[in-house]
Design goal:
Largest sheet: 7 strands, mixed
Radius of gyration: 20 Å
Strand content: 15-25%
Shape: globular
Subcellular location: Cell inner membrane
Helix content: 40-55%
Transmembrane segments: 20-48
Protein name: Lipid A biosynthesis lauroyl acyltransferase
Pfam family, one: Lip_A_acyltrans
GO molecular function: acyltransferase activity
Mean pLDDT: 90
Number of strands: 11
Low-confidence stretches: none
Length: 329
C-alpha cells in the first residue's frame, strides 16, 4: 500500500478522523460545510497559538510584505489566513459531490481566452499556480468542463490520507501526477495535448534557482520554465480567488509567457521563473489572507558561486533587453 511510508496507528487514526469529516461535509448542505470550515480555521488558529514556533514563522513571513505592521496587525492577518484555509479544506472535501452545475453560478473566469488559445496550439498546456485561494478548484473546474487536466501533487507521508485525498481529487475527473516521479509523466501528458498544473510557490529543495520574491532571495522551482523550453508547451499563470462578498470564486488565467531566446538556457529559465513569481507577488498583494504564509518560504540564500552565476545571467538578460524580453502572448 505504500513504499517506505509510515503506516502507524497514528496514521490510521488520522485517516479515520479525516474520512469521517469528509463523509460529514459531503452529507450536509453547503452552508453547514462552510460553517464547519470556519470552525476548522479557528482550530488552526488555536494550534498556532500553542505551536509558537509555527506562529513565529508565519508572522516573520508576513513582515516581509508588511515591514511596518504591529504584532497585533500581523496576528489579525494570521487569523484571516487560518479562516481561509479552514474553509478551503471543508470545500475541497466535497469534491465527490461536485458537479459542473454546482460552480457555473459561483465561478467566474477571467482571461479564459488565454487558456483556450494555448490549448489550440496542440502542444499541451502548463498552468503555473500556487497554494493560493481555492487552489484545487481551478484544475477541478477545468476537469469538470471536459479538459484533460493533471495536477502534480506531492505524496502525503500518511499513505491512508494520501489515498483519501487523491480519491477526492479524482472524483472530479482530475488526473494525479505524483511529484516524486513527475518529469517523464508530465512530458508524456504534454505531448498528448493534456493540461498540467504545477504549484511553484513553496520552497524548492531541488530543481531550483534563487530569485527575489517580495524582495528577498527564495529558492524557486524551475519546472514550468524547463518544461516550456523543452517541449514548447505554453505556460500560463493561473490562480483561483475566493470572493467572500458574494460567495463566489474567480479563476484567472494570465497571458502565456513568451520569450525570445537569449542563447543561454539558464538565462531563459531565469526570465520565465522570475516572471511567474512576479505575477504571484501581485496576486498575493490583492488578497494576502489567501496565500499559505505558514510555510517556510525563505529558507536559504544563494552562496557566492550562485550569486556570481545570477549576475552573469542577469547581465545577459539586460544586454539583450531589446531583443529578449518576457512578453505576453
Amino acid at each position: 500500500m505504500g513504499s517506505g511510508k509510515n503506516n502507524s496507528s497514528a496514521d490510521k487514526a488520522a485517516f479515520v478522523f479525516l474520512k469521517g469529516l469528509a463523509l460529514f461535509l459531503v452529507a450536509v448542505p453547503r452552508n453547514v460545510a462552510f460553517g464547519a470550515g470556519s470552525a476548522l480555521g479557528w482550530v488552526l488558529w488555536v494550534f498556532l497559538r500553542i505551536e509558537r514556533k509555527r506562529l513565529k514563522i508565519t508572522m516573520n513571513n508576513l513582515k516581509i510584505l508588511y515591514p511596518d505592521a504591529t504584532d497585533k496587525e500581523l496576528r489579525n492577518i494570521v487569523r484571516r489566513v487560518c479562516r481561509h484555509f479552514g474553509r478551503f479544506h471543508s470545500e475541497s472535501m466535497r469534491g465527490p459531490i461536485l458537479k459542473r452545475s454546482d460552480f457555473e453560478g459561483r465561478v467566474k473566469f477571467e482571461g479564459l481566452d488565454n487558456f483556450i488559445s494555448a490549448c489550440k496550439e496542440g502542444k499541451g498546456v502548463i498552468l503555473a499556480t500556487a497554494h493560493f485561494g481555492h487552489f484545487e478548484l481551478g484544475a477541478c473546474a477545468l476537469a469538470l468542463m471536459g479538459y484533460p487536466v493533471f495536477s502534480v501533487i506531492r505524496e502525503v507521508d500518511n499513505v491512508y490520507v494520501d489515498e483519501l485525498l487523491d480519491n477526492v481529487r479524482r472524483s472530479t475527473g482530475l488526473g494525479i501526477i505524483k511529484k516524486e516521479s513527475a518529469s517523464k509523466e508530465i512530458i508524456k501528458h504534454l505531448r498528448e495535448g493534456h493540461v498540467v498544473t504545477i504549484h511553484t510557490d513553496l520552497h524548492a529543495a531541488f530543481n531550483k534557482i534563487f530569485i527575489k520574491f517580495f524582495g528577498k532571495w527564495a529558492a524557486t522551482f524551475i519546472t514550468p520554465a524547463v518544461l516550456n523550453l523543452r517541449t514548447k508547451a505554453p505556460v500560463l499563470p493561473m490562480f483561483c480567488f475566493r470572493n467572500d462578498a458574494d460567495d463566489s470564486y474567480t479563476i484567472r488565467f494570465y497571458p502565456q509567457v513568451k520569450i525570445k531566446p537569449t542563447g543561454d538556457i539558464s538565462a531563459d529559465v531565469r526570465q520565465i521563473t522570475t516572471y511567474i513569481a512576479g505575477v504571484l507577488e501581485n496576486v498575493i498583494r490583492e488578497a494576502p489572507e489567501q496565500w499559505f504564509w505558514l510555510h517556510r518560504r525563505w529558507k536559504e540564500e544563494p552562496d557566492d558561486k550562485e550569486l556570481e552565476a545570477i549576475k552573469k545571467q542577469e547581465a545577459l538578460i539586460d544586454s539583450g533587453a531589446d531583443k529578449a524580453g518576457v512578453t505576453s502572448a
